[in-house]
Design a protein that fits this description.
The chain is an alpha+beta fold. About 25% of the residues lie in helices and about 20% in strands.
Length: about 100
């Protein structure tokens, strides 16, 4: 009985993974063409809640800059994180509309 339950969980997980792969363009938050190709090896941006003026409830990120062969955060400008923003339109198949 335990083997059947484990197999069912594995099959559901595999099906969910396949659905995510099929609808990857719909699930992903941005169009692949919107990537910054000038900083290909920059590490992912870190979320910050604290800056020089104290704690903020809205998280923000700082953009990376290249300085002497390493990437540093640009502390002169902060970009707030927004949830559920409007972006490009999608068709039912998950592809972008022109």
């Amino acid at each position: 009985m335990r083997i059947k339950k484990t197999m069912l969980i594995l099959l559901i997980s595999l099906a969910a993974l396949h659905l995510i792969v099929i609808f990857a363009s719909f699930v992903s938050p941005y169009d692949p063409g919107e990537q910054n190709r000038e900083l290909p090896y920059a590490s992912p941006t870190r979320l910050h809640f604290v800056n020089g003026s104290g704690f903020h409830f809205r998280p923000f990120v700082r953009s990376p800059i290249l300085s002497t062969d390493t990437y540093q955060e640009d502390r002169t400008r902060e970009y707030p994180i927004h949830l559920f923003v409007r972006n490009a339109s999608y068709t039912n198949s998950g592809t972008l509309q022109s």
